[in-house]
Amino acid sequence: MSMPTTADDTRLGEGPLQAVGDVRLPPAGSTPRQEACKQCRARHVKCDRVKVCCGACSRLSFHCSFGGPSENPEPDSSTLSHPSLLTQAGTKRKRVQSACLPCRKVKAKCSGDEPCARCRCRGIQCVRSEDSNTQNQQPAEPLQHLGFTFSSAPPPSSAIALDKVTMRQYIEAYFAMTNPSTCIFLHRPTVLADWSRGRLNTLLQTALCASGMRLLALRTRNMIPRGKATARAWMQRVQTSVLMDVKKQSMDQLQILVLIIQFHFFEDEIAEAWNLLSLAARLAFTLGLNEEHEDSDPVVQESRRRLIWAVYLLDRMFSGGIEDLAVCPVNRLRIRLPCDDRSFQRGISSRAEYLDDTLHPTQTDRSHMDLLAYHTRLAATRDRILSYTKHVRREGLSPVASKNQLETLQTELQHFEETLPEDLRLNSERLLLMAQSSDSGAYVLLHTHWLQCHCDLYRFLIPGIRESVNKADIEATPPDFVEFCQKACLSKAIQLCELWSEIADVEFCQPIEDFFLSISIYQVAQIVHHLHHLLPRQGSHSLGSLKTKLEKALQVVSFLQTHFPRGARCFVDTEHLVQTLGHSGSSTGSESEDQDHRYHLTSKHSLIPKIWEQTDAAKPDDDIALRILGEPALSASVKRVGREIASLPGAAPQLGSLSQIPNAMGAEGMSPVFGGHEGFIQWDPFDMQLNDYHDPQLGGFGLSFPS
Fold this sequence. Notes:
This protein is an all-alpha fold. The protein has 25 helices and four strands. A hairpin with a 4-residue loop joins strand 3 (142-143) and strand 4 (148-149).
């Protein structure tokens, strides 16, 4: 029996339906309509409904729901736990690495890694914007062989969302992997105890995790871009909070600030570290860290000492012997040198010497000193050497006129070497033993610094190098004195070549992560290049032999070029110099660069920022992000904070980023104008009437305030 057909039973393009029981079937001979696959329906695109795998899924390598895998099957969205990897339709997001700023500017192809191949080849700073770093950040995979896990970007607060196990691993990594010569001022047992009880400052905790993650990223090379980007984001968040509450004056605030500065320094963000250092130095003296407090707990007292010594070491690295640029006056540091790490960790009262070892000889004991104390003392000697040689060059004096001062500094270097304990002396046997120690890097750097100090002291009579006096002063100097200085400088340069050659032949337990080593290799190559006529033709000290040793030295620091953009530039310059060693027609490129900065007399690859004139005649291809020593541009978060501060009532109308503060010069480049306020008094760190460093003999502060 047939059922009547109604209008509702007729569809467009189809015949009347037949009913079997309660189920309606299409008429015999018709083809049933097929739905699109799940992927095409989710993406709202047309599906050709081809069995096994539709055309759209095949073209995009998706796993088609029709049942047939594509040639490159896409993993199911359920396996992609991180939502940033999925589109709204649940398919995998196909992202490409954003180009860095230098490549984007010239529209060149960028490899996407950090630093990219083009920047690494040219030895320039590889800068990426905050947006590109955030966009390309992927969820981390666990480092099972180290037991560490990289977390994704932090939440929008000063605290970071990590489980306690991972957070402890990052904090432990900071204490375990930080170079001892960096001056670790935090007491590990106290920090871990406060952290476990929830009493550790949140910003300090985040700064420690960021520092630990950066060190882990360096040791685990396949995680460098992801780990460094996350660590940088955390540290920028801490810096934002500190600068928003800059009025706060406490030990926690200073500790966080120094961690930020050290992080910027090792990330080659010199301009930010440079400007923040003056703030840290002022705060350290305000808190009275430059004085001994005998009634304090030994742990607290040593932590206070190490904190201001960390500021001092950074200051001496930055100022380069120029007193006008120093912000931590050494004559005001009336405290002991850092004690040995064993005494610090166990809370034993320090009996370490003072910077001047003639002070309080009956109250000191050299057995309480280790590599950090001697490194600090040598930094003061090197600062005096650089100050002396730059004074001679600046005043246009013949070096022979200051021969007595030169001999005094040489005696000081000799005395330093004689006072070293036996286990810190330099010899081949000791080098083999120290190579497997956690202090191996600090040991090598100590003796590299000591030998380099001799080169710095005598190199001003080597014609052709950037650090020499002018030609007229060399001609006015007795030839025997010129020959003495040149041979003394060359002798120590040869010893450095031999030291680095031995290091290359010894398998160290950890790499030497210090940019100063790259600078020293470049300086030694300069000395050998300009004094090759004094070398023997044959033997271990011949030009060919020294060239081989310098090539080995480059192998020691080769990994630095992938971690530090400044190290990459120095490596490229040194490599070129070593290849042309001894060729009279080759140019080292140091004689004509930046010679307009006569007053600072900076060496090549110096840490002193170069202040470029902001004029309309600036080169059109100058990259603003690379104008100050090629440091990376500030992140968007810090720039945003600057705009927020500028919008506050009473704020300066033009408060820029930290790296722009040195460029705030007046119209004639003489009187600084800050934020558009003329008559602004420039801060002088040595103006005692304004700065008023704490002096206990005055019973407080020198300035009187109305009651």
